[in-house]
Amino acid sequence: MTEIEVDRPRRSLTARIVIGMVAGLALGVSLNMLRTHGLDPQGWVGRALQSFLIDGLFYVVGAVFMASLKLLVVPLVFVSLVCGAASLDDLSRLGRIGGKTLALYLGTTAIAISVALSAAALVRPGDGLDLPTDLEFAPRVAPGWTETLVNIFPSNPIQAMAEGNMLQIIVFALLFGFAMSLSGDPGRRLLAVFEDLNKVVLRLVTVLMEIAPYGVFCLLARIFADQGLGAIAQLASYFSVVLAVLLFHGLVVYPVLLKIFSGLNPRVFLRKMRAPISFAFSTASSNATLPVTLETAEDRLGVDNRVASFTIPLGATINMDGTAIMQGVATVFIAQAYGLDLGPVQYLGVVLTATLASVGTAGVPGVGLIMLALVLRQANLPVEGIALIIGVDRLLDMVRTAVNITGDAAVTCIVAQSEGQLDAEAFQAP
Ligand code: ASP
After folding, report:
1. 1.10.3860.10, 3.30.70.2190, 2.70.70.10, 1.10.4160.10: which CATH number matches 13-428?
2. 0.70 exceeded by the pTM?
């Protein structure tokens, strides 16, 4: 190794991802400003920029990056959870882990939505808004709760995997893993194969993460070139209330809960979460970020596979505190914008439905906004109000997805620590 290389070590992957993020954001915003101030979008420079750079290079690299992340989700969740379930010594432990995880997931979501409602009721971001009269929003119809429950159980595991139906994959992997643990020698032999597979798939995660700095750069450059930051100005107070509550939840509520319930150092936790947070921010998808969250939980936070392989995929599917925060603030904002006041019973209804709506929100971009229709309908508010906030939703989606996955990891650490399944040395390791 030459002296120069010794003096300037290669930057860590996380640092390169963060650089990619900041550079992509800056370039995107500059391109957008260039287009809105002066550069003729129909002139040849404007058209070339759009079709070769923004919708060409940035789109291709960003889409390939997203696909390479999504590609890992189903094999990783299945293999990793089969290993976890097959090596659980007794069923009651899974029951305990499941119970604690669900209680914490729902509890943190209820805290999130309550803080969001209180902040929105105090700041009143929707007051005095001049409503456009031509608002339109066509909501999708959500399935009923009976159907939702029945849908958790797969009738065809291959179909569940092909569709990426996470809850069905979780149920099948748990059953398969149990059957393995009950099968004596054949089960043990198969477990050895699955453990090897798990190592290989996790290795693939780290290999593909090498392209992350470029992927993140292109995703952000394209989004900000198309969106710019102009929409924020019109909805500044709504945007800042959602953002403030999201930051409060991520930087205060989780760290405090982590400290109280597990005694773990929140600073170390947040530092190690930088990579998955950057992925979540750039992709706006808890699902696509899942491989990175799982890898971080097991390899960097020291959580045993038996806990993380269950809690992280479950969290990426049902635990959406950031989404609940947006839905809470948006509901109050829309009510205020239409000059309608919510009473205490309606607030309670919003807490309940927003918790359920966030559970039902899939971990992909933009679904939280679609599920907001459910909350509005329950509170008897006009669903077209959603059209008011669409303009800034993508930006908020990025931040709320980062909060969503931070919540999954925080709860995972708390549950693992309480079960004696967290390696404190690995957690503290630099
Ligand atoms: N994009 C969010 C997620 O993947 C869901 C949403 O709020 O739209 O976690």
Report:
1. 1.10.3860.10
2. yes
Question: What does the pLDDT look like over 212-253, one tens digit per residue?
Answer: 899 999 998 998 888 777 777 778 889 999 999 999 999 999
CA atoms of 122 and 114, how far apart (whole Å): 12
Q: Count of CB atoms within 10 A of residue 277's CB? A: 27
- 8 Å CB contact between 235 and 336: no
Which tens digits make up the pLDDT trace of 78-101?
Answer: 998 898 888 876 777 888 999 999
Out of 282, 289, 323, mutate this one to test ligand 1's pocket (max ligand atoms within 8 Å of CB): namely: 323
Q: Which atom of ligand 1 is nearest to the CA of 367?
A: 8
Distance 3 CA to ligand 1 centre (A): 46
**Dist. CA 85 → ligand 1 center (Å):** 28
| Mutation choice for ligand 1 from 242, 283, 285, CB with most ligand atoms inside 8 A | 285
Residues within 6 Å of ligand 1 by CB: 284-286, 320, 323, 361, 363-368, 397, 400-401, 404
Q: What is the pLDDT of residue 8?
A: 46
Between CA 167 and CA 154 the distance in angstroms is 9
Q: How far is CA 277 from CA 29, 210, 305, 416, in A?
A: 21, 16, 21, 21
